[in-house]
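Sanity check

After download, print the first record. It should look like this:
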Amino acid sequence: MTSSFARNQWYVAAYGSEISNELLARTICGEPIVFYRTSAGEVIGLSDNCVHRRFPLSEGRLVDDKIVCGYHGFTYDQRGTCVYVPGQQRIPRTARVPRYPVVEQDGFIWVWIGDPDRADAGAIPRTPWFEAEGWSTVRGMERLEARYGLLVDNLMDLSHETYLHSTSIGSPEVAEAPITTEVDDVNQVVYVSRRMDDAECPPFYARATGITGRITRWQDIEYHPPCLYQLHTRIAPQGVYPPDDGPDDQAFHVEIANPITPETETTTLDFWVVARDFAIDDPEISGSLTEITRSIILEDVAALTRLERHLAADPGGYQELSINIDTGGLAARRMLRRQIEEADLAQARS
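Expected structure tokens:
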């Protein structure tokens, strides 16, 4: 049976700030995992199933960097090896839970879902802005009651901003501007770009930058299937830049990342991070940006939840119609499908 998830891939499981000496439960690609940070600062990810009766280890407690199961006291070290069994001296040789490869990078906790021997930390895409000097960052996460492919479609086609987010970041030019799509099959990246000249300045940008007139606006998408979506966005007063762009030292930059992490077949963890290089010491702007971004995300959540229910009610009777603005999303779908097929083939051979 074909999986819905691309395995042998890295996924964002949490923000680094979420992991402490308390147990944190997350489900990634249908696999329950418990995370914690050791006293030395290392992040550990273990299967969230006690070998005894499958009680969630996340419902237990940490004692000296070991997890004590909250049901019968089975105790596991950082490698997932059971080191204590109640009522007997001998510990069964098979008393261990899988340990997941984990990497902490650029503020994210990445976990490898698949064959641990194939985990290559060098393959994790970088997002350096979120912890860099000269940038101010806000972040959050929402759980989506919809399959993760719907969120990929949503973010690859930003023309929906004009209609779904008309009161915040949308403007008529987003839907009307043509896009360019490039596919890098070697490095597994899909790029979608649009430039909008003589565009309306969205209210947030006007307040935060002081721009009072029309703007030039760029949106450059970089999608690394299966998990990381990045949006490099710039705005500048209209007329500052020639058609070939030139140096962009007069532009205001916003870097956005949405790690799209499938939780189950029909639920998704939508992480979001927004970094800016202007008004970086203004807490009011940070608060406003957090509020606006979360309201935008919740508009997406509501729309995609409705779409998921609609599709689930008629799973076989819908024929899609795709147009020019869908080229990036369709390329992302193809790349995801290949990753899933390759993982399924590798599993079948093992």
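If your output differs, re-run the checksum step. Summary of this record's structure: The mean pLDDT is 91.
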